[in-house]
Design goal:
Blueprint lengths: L4 E4 L3 H11 L5 E5 L6 H9 L4 E2 L3 H6 L9 H6 L2 H10 L4 E3 L4 E4 L4 H13 L3 E5 L3 E7 L2 E7 L2 E4 L2 E4 L14 H8 L8 E3 L3 E3 L11 E10 L3 E11 L3 E3 L1 H14 L4 E6 L6 H14 L15 H10 L13 H11 L2 E8 L7 E3 L20 E3 L13 H27 L1
Parallel strand pairs: 1-2, 1-10, 2-6, 10-19
Antiparallel strand pairs: 3-5, 4-5, 7-8, 8-9, 11-18, 12-15, 12-17, 13-14, 13-16, 14-15, 16-17
Helix pairs in contact: 1-12, 2-6, 9-11
């Protein structure tokens, strides 16, 4: 049987799927609708490509809420350490930053995509750019090819690695979900994940660009939803930054039920009594100043006015006139600055899509469909999304590589049977 393994989608998962199959000397056709490979890969990690994380396997699994166990076989087949070694062999030197995040030393995603492209060119891979796939061809219950605007491409196996709905300008426009549904697969609800949040309060716009480090943000619905410690960012529409992106997954789901409140503890390292003593010291230091000038050691300049407004304190009040009750209101605000989330940003701006092809219908040991023979899935098309930190990209690489090797194995066994 000379029909190739056909990979649909030239992103992280698709490229590794093509490599995984071609390394086993199986002919591969890689179809990409754009005129270049890896467009989303180019913008990941703010253009630096956060390729993976050095976390141990069990911690890695925990970064995919609810569905992490599905990744055991894929990560065993291509672990984070395997991926680091792979890129080293391709000539991409890597470095480890805070939180175990792994980036190219050059800080250039372009170097990653170019290295992958050079390696693909050495393998039996027929790369067809600018090729728009319109559907998957079935004979009985077995995949036999894909339909493109240029015609039918026959296939021994098809790997759908078409991405999600986020960043549609990179080609992730949800095509794979439609193909999967047409083939009888369940697609779970699609939501944005790792997404900035819009807030009701207008004052956040005045803080746009301000980064807060070492703060704790707690999200509340009808009950406490979760909390994260680290770095966040104010924007013209609301809030973003690593801890906001991590919380966004659960916030987006809760917003379907009702409003969500955020509480920002600006001084989480101090208990309430210690913080109040710190405020008293600053008030003693600036006793002759107005209140707005007595918080310069405690808060960024931009944040002083909003904190005083929320505390119902007059910024022009002399510090020595502040009452104990007013001071305690200030401390409450410092450890619980409130924000009201109205909605998430559009899914097109999400780093990843939450939801996708139901994992119940995919064999985690091979990435093959349990419904249709010779059909495989890889990457963001699956109902599999993790927190920020390099986890999602590793999952895309690993599921892609496993799908490619599995499809190639099926190809070899079919040829032996003939």
């Amino acid at each position: 049987m000379n029909s190739p393994v056909v990979v649909v989608g030239g992103g992280a998962a698709g490229i590794l799927a093509a490599i995984g199959a071609a390394e086993k000397e199986v002919p591969v056709v890689l179809l990409e609708k754009n005129t270049r490979l890896g467009l989303k890969l180019l913008i990941t990690g703010k253009g630096r490509s956060n390729l993976t994380n050095t976390a141990p396997l069990d911690f890695f699994i925990q970064q995919f809420p609810g569905h992490g166990r599905f990744l055991y076989s894929a990560l065993a087949n291509l672990s984070n350490n395997d991926l680091i070694s792979f890129f080293h062999r391709l000539g991409v030197e890597l470095k480890v930053e805070r939180g175990g995040r792994v980036f190219p030393v050059s800080d250039r995603s372009k170097d990653v995509v170019e290295a992958l492209s050079r390696y693909l060119a050495k393998l039996p891979v027929d790369l067809r750019l600018g090729t728009n796939v319109t559907g998957v061809n079935l004979t009985g219950n077995t995949v036999t090819g894909v339909k493109t605007e240029q015609g039918l491409v026959t296939a021994h196996a098809v790997i759908l690695a078409t991405g999600g709905l986020s960043y549609p300008r990179t080609g992730s426009t949800g095509d794979g979900y439609r193909f999967a549904q047409a083939l009888g697969h369940t697609v779970t609800p699609l939501r944005p994940s790792l997404i900035p949040l819009e807030t009701k309060e207008n004052w956040v716009a005045d803080l746009s660009g301000l980064t807060l480090k070492n703060v704790k943000v707690t999200a509340w619905g009808k009950k406490k939803l979760g909390e994260e410690f680290g770095e966040m960012l104010f924007t013209h529409f609301g809030v973003s930054g690593p801890i906001i992106l991590t919380l966004s997954r659960i916030v987006v789901r809760e917003l379907e039920k009702g409003p969500v409140r955020l509480s920002i503890n600006l001084k989480p390292a101090l208990d309430r009594d210690t913080l109040e003593r710190r405020v008293i010291r600053d008030f003693d230091k600036y006793a002759s100043k107005h209140l707005k000038n007595a918080l310069v050691d405690l808060l960024p300049q931009k944040l002083i006015q909003p904190v005083l407004n929320i505390s119902n304190l007059d910024p022009h009040q002399p510090v020595h006139q502040v009452t104990r009750k007013e001071r305690q209101c200030l401390v409450d605000t410092l450890q619980g600055l409130p924000l009201t989330v109205t909605q998430a940003r559009p899914i097109a701006e999400a780093i990843v899509t939450s939801g996708g092809v139901s994992l119940k219908e995919v064999n985690p040991k091979t990435m093959e469909s349990k419904i249709v023979s010779n059909l495989y899935f890889a990457g963001e098309i699956l109902d599999l999304d993790g927190y920020t930190g390099g986890y999602n990209l590793q999952a895309a690489f690993s599921t892609g590589y496993l799908a490619g090797r599995s499809a190639a194995g099926r190809h070899h066994s079919s040829r032996r049977d003939q």
